[in-house]
Amino acid sequence: MKSGGYLVIDQTEAMTTIDVNTGGYVGHRNLEETIFRTNLEATVAIARQLRLRNLGGIIILDFIDMDDPGHRSQVLQALEKSLARDHARNNIGTISELGLVEMTRKRIRESLEHVLCYACPSCDGRGFLKTPETICYEIFREILRRNRQFDFQELLVLACPEVIELLVDEESASLAELEELTGKPIRLQSESLYAQDQFDVVLM
């Protein structure tokens, strides 16, 4: 968030929890005012993340504790206002003295986690792994970041065979565009011992 506060989002099969933290934000008046302003800003960020990630089911919002009942009421009203534009149906409960709000949201499509990840076969689907496509996009972002920050002659990308195969085949056009953009050749190297979500971008 702009103030320095941030959200911690934890998604499980049973529910989603969103924890509000102040981060480095220090208010000009006092701690209570800092907490209140951070919680107000968080209502907008929460509504945005619910839509972007398409989170549904039971959602627990953990705002920072507020001593003033008036502040708690205003934060709840701000949350309701922020969610008013949401196309999904929301049911928002009251806010407790500890700053907890229980709500439900009807999902209108697959969540972002299910789009970018797949169920882990090693733990019977209790966790999720990033898809090879997602790893490719992370590699592209890392290449662009390195290109902005460093001077180099060429790049070497090391990744697992599945990701390298995807880069050579379906994502070859994107890779060629990156080479043209950076003006540097990008070499690929398959590493059989790498986990699927593991990769390295080496400057040469």
In short:
With 204 residues, this protein is an alpha+beta fold.
Structure description:
With 204 residues, this protein is α+β, with helices and mostly antiparallel strands. The protein folds into two domains: 6-113, Translation Initiation Factor IF3 (2-Layer Sandwich), CATH 3.30.110; 131-203, 3-Layer(aba) Sandwich (Hypothetical Protein Ychn, Chain: A), CATH 3.40.1260. It is built from six helices and ten strands. It has helices at 31-53, 69-83, 112-116, 132-149, 161-168, 172-182; strands at 6-11, 16-21, 57-62, 90-95, 100-105, 117-119, 128-130, 155-159, 186-190, 199-203. The strands form three sheets. The protein has a five-stranded mixed beta sheet with strand order 1-2-3-5-4, with helices on one face. A three-stranded mixed beta sheet has the order 9-8-10, covered by helices on one side. It has a two-stranded antiparallel ribbon with strand order 6-7. Helix 1 packs parallel to helix 2 (69-83) and helix 4 (132-149) packs across helix 5 (161-168). The longest helix is centred in the first third of the chain and has 23 residues, at 31-53. The relative contact order is 0.11.
Give the helices and strands, then pairings.
Elements: E1 6-11, E2 16-21, H1 31-53, E3 57-62, H2 69-83, E4 90-95, E5 100-105, H3 112-116, E6 117-119, E7 128-130, H4 132-149, E8 155-159, H5 161-168, H6 172-182, E9 186-190, E10 199-203
